[in-house]
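ok trying this again, last paste got cut off
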Amino acid sequence: MGTNTDSDFASLLDDLFVARAMAEEAPAKPTIPFDYLAVADELYSGRIKVAAEAAKAEYREASETFEAGFAALLSSLDELVAERAEPQEELPSVDPETIARELNLAAAKASADFSRLRRTFAFHNHPDRVAPHLRQRAMVRMQVANMLIDDAKRRATKAGKR
């Protein structure tokens, strides 16, 4: 960039573009925080002697230490999984008698009572409201409950007409 203080704005922009182009043309040199080439030269020079047996023994020791550490890690992982394992949850019953007891159909007399029972049961047991692994069972429970409510409603209607 020029040091001329009388330069106009256009020449200042030209100087900036030239400086930027020069910076882009010269790639930045990579920096290595450690002199790997010097270490490689030192190893290949022959000045450093490493006995083959000592290297093998060190490798075996490292391998045994690794295996022991890995076995310990696996056992601690098994313990962690055992701690986090949830107790087997009891699946809701699909037995019609059990569902009938849950519904308490004997207490319902009017059509509105049966509708309330159906909504209440659906609120707690509808397949869209349960965990994914329980959806199939919830669908069966809803079908059984609807069948039981419809039968009880028909019987109540017949008893009311008499």
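PB: full thing came through this time. The mean pLDDT is 81.
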